[in-house]
Amino acid sequence: MAKEKVTSAEVAALAGVSQSAVSRVFTPGASASAKTVEKVRKAAEQLGYRPNVLARAMVSGRSRIIGLVVAYLENQFYPVALEMLSNALQKRGYHILIFTAPNSTDGVDGLLEELMDYQVDGIIAASVSMSSDLAARAQRAGIPVVLFNRGQDGPGLSHVTSANVEGGRKVAEFLIAGGHERIAHIAGWQGSSTGRDRQAGFLAAMRAAGKRPFATVDGMYSREVAAACARQLLQGGTRPDAIFVGNDHMAFAVMDVIRDQGLVPGQDISVVGYDDVPLASWGAYRLTTLRQPVNRMVEAAVDLVLRQIEERDAAQDHIEIEGELILRSSARIPEGWTK
Amino acid sequence: MAKEKVTSAEVAALAGVSQSAVSRVFTPGASASAKTVEKVRKAAEQLGYRPNVLARAMVSGRSRIIGLVVAYLENQFYPVALEMLSNALQKRGYHILIFTAPNSTDGVDGLLEELMDYQVDGIIAASVSMSSDLAARAQRAGIPVVLFNRGQDGPGLSHVTSANVEGGRKVAEFLIAGGHERIAHIAGWQGSSTGRDRQAGFLAAMRAAGKRPFATVDGMYSREVAAACARQLLQGGTRPDAIFVGNDHMAFAVMDVIRDQGLVPGQDISVVGYDDVPLASWGAYRLTTLRQPVNRMVEAAVDLVLRQIEERDAAQDHIEIEGELILRSSARIPEGWTK
DNA sequence: CTGAAAGCGCTTACAG
DNA sequence: CTGAAAGCGCTTACAG
Q1: Which nucleotide is nearest to A8 (CA to C1')?
Q2: Residues of A whose CB is below 8 A from B73
Q3: pLDDT-based confidence at residue A94 (cuts at 50, 70, 90)
Q4: What is the nearest nucleotide to A60, using C1' and CA?
Q5: Number of Cβ within a 10 Å radius of residue A223
Q6: Which Gene3D superfamilies match (chains A, B) (predicted)?
Q7: Looking at chain A from residue 56 to 85, which residues have their Cβ under 8 Å from any Cβ of chain B?
Q8: Which of A42-56, B1-15, B90-104 has maximum average pLDDT?
Q9: Closest listed residue to residue B226, CA positions, set B204, B248, B242
Q10: What are the two backbone dihedrals, phi and then psi, of residue A325, each rounded to the nearest 5 degrees?
């Protein structure tokens, strides 16, 4: 039976080698003779020895911990991403230390201190913006930061997003092709790059087609705000015949409001979301939406941080992944387009 | 400008005190004169010093890290719990190291090793079972384990759940009071205590009322399985007039199937879930469900681990929190009951 | 209250 | 390949 805590020294004693030898056997790439390896492995097994990650971290300067700043978990996009991120990182020998953040910018500032206290090797920040001051501090500390699903103004940070401007454009073009005349936009939070980019793409495509949006309002990425916006839009004499909503999470609220008014999404009013979270495909919503390829975004983010950690040279990078419009029944499908 | 890494020795030098003094100033409860505190604080501020948590962990034996084993994040119950857990722990100076687990028992076994490598102070395992062998190992290592939303056969682990047997009973009584004649149960995974307990309570209440369930099947906590079960139940000549589903996540799938068949939940067939995740109150579902009070479950779990960590004596405990039936429109409401 | 010193469990030059 | 030794950044008795 293994005892509470076994150290490399105890293994060394049992194996009849030096403590350094034990360490080498457990350090990938270090040299040890086959005989030593065998003796050590046997002793370690017998004692139930496993290297103490924290001690290793102290001397090597690598904790194998990635700080993940996350918020807004009500939006199904993030739990899904979180799970994938954790799996991908686990597979490469890292683990995630979670920091739940307030959704505002200033909330993150205090977190960085704590993050650094734990000597994390890198930081992935999902769904939060970061001041460039913060970026600078992390950089000075030599900790790579990757923004996930959020861009950044100014230099300093890597980030991975989907092609949001283009996504917004695609949605507008789809809606225009569908013959909609009064297209409204309940935008993603205009304090975030994703919200702004999607809106910019949407407006650009409208302009290019010589159309003006029926209305453009900020849904703040909030169910409540989006629902209020939708109610507002529906109450006038003429109402929109299509609404592009800045993300799926808000789009569900909008659909709920539409139905509350006795209208049918996809017939009376087309609704298009952004993300393609699992719920979007469920029977109750069947939401047409611009899919953000989470798996590829996750892969990119993981590659980015780990590359910056493991090969110090690796420069920052901005990765943009293209999304695809997923056609379902919440929006009228233009003739000739196939589901 | 702070430099990359500042140590207590550097602060000591600048402040003109010993390194031990610096350490004391940053150790709550350690004694230092007002003058020393001031000199040290000033120097620390100037240099941008913060204690290295890992170094502190090494010597003190406390990492202030809680390992969280989690899976099944598609079920909105868990992201919600995760966020609350993280917030509660953060507030008390701990952080969560995430381990995503396969939903099976054996998957967790390997994780425990990794968990212990990081010298976590405690473990919270959500939505996973644990072999008693595993429990024993953690115990031997002196690491308290708390099962969240899962019970355990045999001794060794603390756990917090809602009152599942009673919850199942309440649902049955509600359905019986509603005058339903053919009540089916798509149960939670029978490999889990929650699934078994809810079913047991349900069956007991049925028996007590002299009723036999229309059918009882295992939904495995899976959308797909639950949907298949629902289709099965609906296709015969006589179909159930009520279905108690083992959790909300499956209940949504069941409602989707019911509507696909042109039936209306709450009119043609009553559906009752378990959990009361946020989605249950959204317009598209309005699911009647037995609420698990996540906030109280989280508080209890956090208290339990921290107590076991901070006062070594604290014994294991099994905490059961009562839930409440939330009446919405997915199920017929018995006369006299109020929403 | 305060400093010198030992030690937490490792990794990593440094000699051999 | 291998061992002795230094050192990672702290906390904590131990004297004073």
Answers
A1: C9
A2: 79-80, 82-83
A3: very high
A4: C11
A5: 20
A6: 3.40.50.2300, lambda repressor-like DNA-binding domains
A7: 57-58, 63, 65, 68, 73-74, 76, 78-80, 82-83
A8: A42-56
A9: B248
A10: -80, 125
